[in-house]
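seq:
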Amino acid sequence: MKILIGIDGSSASDAALQEVILRPWPKGSEFKLVTAVDPFFFVRAPQLLEETKKSTNEELEEDAAGLRTKGWPVSTEVLLENPRHAIPKLATDWKAELAVLGSHGRGTFTRLMIGSTAQAVLRHAPCSVEIVRTPRGDRAGRGAHGMRILLPTDGSEYAALAANRVAERPWPEGSIFKVLACPEYPVLIGEYPYYAPEQLVELSKASEAQARAAAEAAAAVLRNSGLEVKTEVTEPRESPARTILSSAELWQSDLIVMGSHGRRGFDRLVMGSVSESVAMHAHCSVEVVRQFLIL
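struct:
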């Protein structure tokens, strides 16, 4: 597995690196630490840009020590480009399978909204992307041991891909998994078409049945890999994104893993509204799973 880690010297990127160091990874995995330095700010000081590149590379080598101590092969690279463009491009060129970033860079100020670089990578990288948030409350004491991983599913091919990725990877001992399905009901606005009450009940039952089937199918994939799994089918009180966020907070999830699109996904290169909303607002880390695409 090829894992790309974005580093910018912020506490959020430090947390992302530590999360990667603490977790188990598939045998044969390799890592690349990358920092992007925007040359725009050095137009009038080219010598300073070279010095910055040199010192940044030295810092990356120091950051790589933690992974090398674990026996993983690690390379480093300093890119002279805007990070919002440079990291997705490097993920493509290096054929990364997962890009990991902190939720905020140095310039961000709110805890719940992800930073502009993380959002750009989330939208444009052709691989899976994990946005790491610093654990809070009880989660902080667990570290990467005995993680709680929430896997939302709607039965789509993208959700199935996420379930397979989770099942294929090693996880810390004692980790538990919850598969979450949120039934969807049609939003009926206006006078036409007309649905009789019994037709609405039938639609509701069909949606609930589909959600339960999706949850059981994803849970079976995880159980076949020996993982401890529970399932939950929610009441249709809120939008799927809000339901996922509230469930993750209530269960004190360490990580949400979900597909890049739901059953209504229309373009593999544009983020689905639910997955992006969850990634932007979650209180825990979020991994959005994509199949690597050659652009």
